[in-house]
């Protein structure tokens, strides 16, 4: 991979991304893709975007690409959590990009399904995933949670908790999860996400 031009406020890298990965079931995949990675200036508080440039990965929801053609590595908050295991570019490559490429390559080469469970593409999958991540039951609760993440912590804590416990967020144990996630990205990032949850981040 080598550095490319500065585009859309991002540092770009382009080249072959090699990976070699084995799932717990023993299936090993070694492959490379020709990709371009856009790294926002405030990385790791904002997620990079990755394009696969040779169209080896079909551009459709089934293969998890976004409307702009970038790869949909997972629900944004889930990817943010994965990134925060090691919030560096190497960490992103290892914990976010490689698992996605492994799974998608396995699907293309062998017709295998997603091992760790696959989300529906787009907003329904993201809402489902956040329901399980935050223990919520409805889409309305998820949207309210995303809205609270886009607010200042002090103000959000005064609002009714999205888990419908009847308390303010600041009194419910859900605040620990929310505060943990809140630290990982800028409020503007959560705002953009809350305004268009299925839009890809
Ligand atoms: Zn609550």
Structure description:
The chain folds into two domains: 2-110, no CATH class; 123-195, no CATH class. Helix content is 38%, strand content 16%. The chain has seven helices and four strands. The chain has a four-stranded antiparallel beta sheet with strand order 1-2-3-4. A hairpin with a 6-residue loop joins strand 1 and strand 2. Helix 3 (123-134) packs across helix 4 (139-149) and helix 4 (139-149) runs antiparallel to helix 7 (187-195). It is globular, with a radius of gyration of 18 Å. The chain starts with a strand and ends in a 6-residue tail after the last helix. The site of zinc ion (ZN) has 6 residues, from loops.
Q: Gist?
A:
The chain has two domains: 2-110, no CATH class; 123-195, no CATH class. The protein is built from seven helices and four strands; from the N terminus they run E-E-E-E-H-H-H-H-H-H-H. It has helices spanning 76-83, 89-110, 123-134, 139-149, 153-158, 174-182, 187-195, and strands spanning 2-3, 10-22, 28-40, 49-52.
Class per helix and strand makeup: alpha+beta
Low-confidence spans: none
Strand segment tally: 4
Major sheet characteristics: 4 strands, antiparallel
Report strand %: 15-25%
Spatial order of strands in the largest sheet: 1-2-3-4
Our Rg estimate from Cα atoms comes to 18 Å
Core attributes:
2 domains, 201 residues, binds zinc ion, globular, 16% strand
